[in-house]
User: What shape does this take?
Amino acid sequence: MFNITALSSGPKHHFFGYYGINAWDRSLRYHLALESDFHDRRPEAGDSALVGLVDRQTHTFTQYAKTSAFNLQQGSMMHWIDAGSGEEFTFNDWEGVGLVWRAANIETREMRTIQGAIAAVSPTESIAIGLNYARMAHCRAVVGYANEIDPESLQNTPEDDGLSLLDLKTGRSRLILSIADVIQASGCEEAQGKRAWFNHVLFNTDGSRPLLFCRVKRDGLFTSLWTVNPDGSDLECQIPFRKWVSHFAWRDPRHILISCNLMGDGGFLEFIDGQRDFQPFGKGILPRDGHACFSPDGEWLVCDYRSKKDSKRIAGLILYNVNNGNEVNLGEVRSDKKFSGDIRCDLHPRWSHDGKTITFDSIHAGDRQIYLVDVSRL
Assistant: This one.
């Protein structure tokens, strides 16, 4: 077992949110975080959280701003960026009835406000992909931003909503792929006329290709997996509707890891973008599903899991060596049974950019905090 230590501390709750995103600044001293007064219910319209940094040395939280666009599962989709204005971090927010993203300079504390909401940032260019988290709140509330929009006003398959390309330098934004485009390209009759949405966008390692889910409300989640160029061209369906599809990661510019049931009951598979040459990955070691991401050097995969013991109240982290198949258990934590459903706390592991640290969110101590595992001795 590796030593798990608390990065943040109470009495307020601190969390980052999603997995597979670098949360550390260049110096590896400051970790992005939200601070909230509650964590036992979904955020409602008008609720807010503080936006800031946790100091690795002092474990203190420093506020930079406040946001009302957040949820417990994905936070405010915070990212570090370098868009020519110094070291900045972004977070999503509401401005009136519209979503915006804000970029905060950690040295000057200057703040830029741009229309749209960031979902994923390119690792190689000053661009990002934006999503409509307002729509998502009425499609799958657990990953949307609470609002008072009348859900009856939403079109099921809009032509003016979907993926947006955001220029992190100029703030310009344009729609590159509509929900209507994808539903039409799917050719799936069961998806026609149903309420559809995009979520879970991720760039590959050279920034040349994002992937995304298109989901439809039909007997639960009806999911398909797609890849596309950043300008919206060369759209390809990798896994069509009618299959169970869950979490994913890019290993390199071409190889995609996905948990799905294409080969039986479910598990992790790997395939090449566009070739769909699915092969089992980590069979017998990795869980059926989990939030998985590769280390910066591609040698290790970290994945969280829910134990089958004790009604799945135990969660843990496992490391899998891509080259030799070795596994390392990083430890387990236990949560109270009241924290389930939309207020659960998936561990959502993420690597530091030097590959020596993994952080995750957990509620095993009763509050919601960020924890750290030093994996430098691997």
Observations:
- The radius of gyration is 19 Å.
- The longest strand covers residues 87-95.
